[in-house]
Amino acid sequence: MASEFELIARYLTPAAPGPGAGVPLGVGDDCALLAPRPGQQLAVSVDTSVSDIHFPVDAPAEAIGHRALAVSLSDLAAMGAESRWCLMALSLARNDDAWLAAFAHGFHALCATTGTVLAGGDVSRGELAVSVTVMGEVSPEAALTRGGGQAGDILAVTGALGGGAGGLALWQRGERDLAHPLLQRYLKPMPRLAAGLALRGLAHAAIDISDGLLADLDHLLTASGVGARLESDALPLAEGLSDELGEHEARQAALCGGDDYELLVSVPPAAWAEAQRRLAAQHLALTPIGTLHEGSGVSGVSVAGKQGWQHFRGTAS
Amino acid sequence: MASEFELIARYLTPAAPGPGAGVPLGVGDDCALLAPRPGQQLAVSVDTSVSDIHFPVDAPAEAIGHRALAVSLSDLAAMGAESRWCLMALSLARNDDAWLAAFAHGFHALCATTGTVLAGGDVSRGELAVSVTVMGEVSPEAALTRGGGQAGDILAVTGALGGGAGGLALWQRGERDLAHPLLQRYLKPMPRLAAGLALRGLAHAAIDISDGLLADLDHLLTASGVGARLESDALPLAEGLSDELGEHEARQAALCGGDDYELLVSVPPAAWAEAQRRLAAQHLALTPIGTLHEGSGVSGVSVAGKQGWQHFRGTAS
């Protein structure tokens, strides 16, 4: 059976990074050495994906690799940061060459798409889980935070909502055709890094929708010290969502479902046209769904429960 | 039951970092924002500690928190890097307030001792496991690597060896007095950060002894392209090790046991006296255990098996 060192060497070591990668010393020593660019701040985040909590254990390995990186990169997108490097901590219950090869393929492919260099990692024995630390760069004045929203701002979301919850529902019903748009949304979300970069200097506040629209909106409002009025009819629903779940459930999924990995942003009216123009150039919708106002709380929606996706509450799967 | 957000807020959020911490934005947004110092490279590493593989599940929670951070910081020590920041990804099987409080105490206490700021984290449900990403700084010319060893260098280790394996053996025999020096070595190792800093500019090569002396020596020799002659009688044994294991087993533990978290360094003869003087000022032994020579391989030791501590081989616990 292959040793830890052999596993790392075979599947988790990327090709030697080029001179522009900012990796003077890559995988293979006690630490990797990275060269941050002068004048930039480092945006860092870590997310763990645990089998049968964050993804089905029998999901395709390639999707698990993609998804574990995507959910972390989504946090960089929400800060308006440029993705630079990542570290992976992988726990494996068993040592399956074909599974690992597919997992690594999904991970490395998204690294390549997003310009992210895998700089190090750790492999251990345990139930299947992947922790990915991402490191990006953003200039101090350009970073998007949750706390910048102002009364009068237009509240908007990128892309479409409810696909995460819809895809999970479909998977649980036995759908296995990964070409289905909802399964794509659930198993292979695309972090909105380019949108985050494009909204620098325009958006007042941003957060990614990983816990569900209402839960993440609540975080943005609390950090910004404002309230919001939602136009719930305006929510952009993921392709096929109403057909699969029915109109009512689809709307609930868009409001409360987790794992959408879209950006929720607040944009001042004066910057709105430019923000839409920039995202349209990326073939990405930016849909207004409400406005921010003085005060607190959310009006304009009626839902059974506002709770987002949280672990330890049993709502996670 | 407390939610993920409440757990994070209660136990894992440190006190607001001061102005010198280099954390313009700490826990509470999608990412933390860090301010690297100009001219420094970033040394980064991640290590996962899984219950009943890397530590006994019934070890004191405070020691588990300390240890999970210590093993990652040991990698910074081996690069001669100054510890700055860390991220914690914690998986918990159940939500136990007292356990979490003790775990957090052990983690935060070592953060404080080592000047490391917890900048973010993630809590999920799963078997007990802790992944800690550490980030340190080192100037490009000062970094210690595995690959700089040269023929003629003196091979040396900090502190004492075999305590990790000895402590584990003691724990397995039922010893629970944490004041026992071997249990201290196993459950509460102290990363040799100050030694790593002191050896900058003196040592040609360094690695931490996490997989066992012979396994890590092999990594250093391979990276440096040299061989070594060991004086196995010179190995500094951890306090109490021979009494507990007997002379032969104690020597085997020093050669092949894992989890010692001492530094193995190669120092040119001209720098030797200064290196010993600097570590003596830290009340830390630096013991010569052999020399590097042209060629490859290790002579001077006779062991049953040279394999170090690897997962997936069943030698881990």
UniProtKB/TrEMBL annotation, chains A, B:
Gene3D superfamilies per the UniProt record, alphabetical: PurM-like C-terminal domain, PurM-like, N-terminal domain
Pathway: Cofactor biosynthesis; thiamine diphosphate biosynthesis; thiamine diphosphate from thiamine phosphate: step 1/1
Keywords carried by this UniProt record: ATP-binding, Kinase, Magnesium, Metal-binding, Nucleotide-binding, Thiamine biosynthesis, Transferase
Residues given in the record as ATP binding sites: G121, D122, R146, S210
UniProt: Mg(2+) 4 binding residues: D30, S45, D75
Domain (PurM-like C-terminal) ranges: 150-298
UniProt-annotated binding residues for substrate: H54, D259, W309
Keyword Transmembrane helix: no
Molecular function GO labels: ATP binding; magnesium ion binding; thiamine-phosphate kinase activity
One BP annotation, GO: thiamine biosynthetic process
Residues that coordinate or bind Mg(2+) 5: D211
Reaction(s) the record says it catalyses: thiamine phosphate + ATP = thiamine diphosphate + ADP
Binding site residues for Mg(2+) 1: D47, D122
EC number: 2.7.4.16
Residues holding Mg(2+) 3: D30, D75, D208
Amino-acid positions noted as binding Mg(2+) 2 in the UniProt annotation, renumbered to this chain: D47, D75
Domain (PurM-like N-terminal): residue spans on this chain: 28-138
Record-stated family: Belongs to the thiamine-monophosphate kinase family.
Role according to the record: Catalyzes the ATP-dependent phosphorylation of thiamine-monophosphate (TMP) to form thiamine-pyrophosphate (TPP), the active form of vitamin B1.
Note: Reaction mechanism of ThiL seems to utilize a direct, inline transfer of the gamma-phosphate of ATP to TMP rather than a phosphorylated enzyme intermediate.
Name of the protein this chain belongs to: Thiamine-monophosphate kinase
Organism: Candidatus Halomonas stercoripullorum
